[in-house]
Amino acid sequence: MTILDVRGLKKSYVARKGFLWTKKVTVDAVKDVTFSVRKHETFGLLGPNGAGKTTTINILAGIVTKDAGDITVFGEPFSHQSRERMNVATAYNSLLDFLTVTQNLRIYARIYNVKNPDARIEQMLRAFGMHKYAQTRYYMLSAGQRTRVNLCKGLVNEPELLLLDEATVGLDPDVAQDVRDEVNKLDTTIIFTSHYMKEIEQLCNRAAFLHQGKIIEIGTPKQLTKLVKEQIVEISFDPHRKMRKILEGLPVKIEEYRNSRVTLRIPTTAGTLHDVLHPLLTKGIYIRDMQITKPSMEDVFIKLARK
Amino acid sequence: MRLYRIHGLLLRHWYITINSVDRILDVLFWPIINLVLWGFASQYVQQIGAQGAIVGVFLGGLILYTLFDRAQKDTSMYIVEDFWNKSVYSMYATPITEAELFSSVALVGLLRAFIEFSIVALLAFVGYGFNILTVGGIGLFFIPLMIFGWAVGLLINGIIFQYGSRISIFIWSVPFMIEPLAAVFYPLSVLPPVLQTIASMLPLAYVFEGLRAAINGTFLVWEFWTALVLSLVYFGVSYWLFRYLVRRGRRTGFLSKQ
Question: Rounded to whole angstroms, how far apart are CA atoms A239 and B117?
């Protein structure tokens, strides 16, 4: 069942340059974005800076209005009513600094008409390990604690569609992993943007790669990694004066070459690994160790971002 | 418009109030300081031989102006709070509407204006023997005062939604800019002709002319209706502008960056 359907989304911003005689410059943030998200799916939006991920999330959150395109949420055109069933959390937004965590969350619970708000707030704070800080003022929290509270705010109304924009940016690796674990447990539909490809691999069922305001690839992380038709092979060997010359004659790209270790990018087409290893072994190269790394989402990111 | 969202916003304003000393003090501190200052000044002017009910003119003007001042400031301050706290994104990504936002700040302004008015009126009675409630028909003039206060507050909000919190100084400076033209403590005829023309476009000038007449026992019907109609016109224009600028903020992406 499709929860969200986005067709031909477009958004441009007008910037003014100059002081007295200003000149209008139009920046196309989102050019033509089309995708759909199924119920209970975690859908990733990835791409380099300025690709249009955040603008897409902002439009879906209702804080930015679209220029063109159709958005259908829960089977109805995107509206004020549909936003009551959605919510958003980003690492970049804040809550009221001098209010306590509970006070901040109560406000949003009321705005979203949550039944029994205090019980819901308590439940969320416990889930995110923040119940000890319920009466702490927001400004006294660390970045990781604020992120958790922002997530609680994003979940206060048990949204059927949750938008998470860079939810773990700036967090320590262990805290980021905790947040990912919590997100993984959520039983809702999520649209997730991140610069960390590991997160996309861990959390997303499907992901779309945006580049210059357009989706250029879409699929499961597994499908996306297949776009990189190379594997990285790291070989440790006994130093040999002919090694470099032999490698230069093979269908490989030498990433790094040291005295007794080489990192190669080898095409994943059938037989290629054999075509590389066989000449090495037959020409007397003694291979001590070898490590093959399959393409990751990071490789996908680099490949697509350089397109 | 949904009542539960207004309830949520009222809860927000309540928490802001009880968590910030300045929000509690600004209902008490400046009005009392002003009252003491103008109370003694008016007593002195009376002593040196001023004709008529000069204490009533000064203190009545001061007390009524607090209604406008409070309505205007609260309409703006509770909204600009999100800009100061960088919580605009969180708040405006919720389904709240401009009408709900205005309703909540208008209600808070009304309540706080009532509290401030009560305190200042009581102190004027206790300290200087002036009872504003005995001025005939004065209660009717509260209506255009509050409406115009909301109108100016909304106008400032609109500008904040256009330029951000860097222009939030307007929240405090605009009442001072309007005060000379409002003819709070003197008749309109004192002003030079050009300023009289400008002042006649403001509902406040009619309110305070009405107050002075009411102190002398006359209720100026024309002044009341003019003040009411003008304040409603200003309110209509300000609300439209506020709504337009909030939506413009969403269109230009300004809100998402606050």
Answer: 91
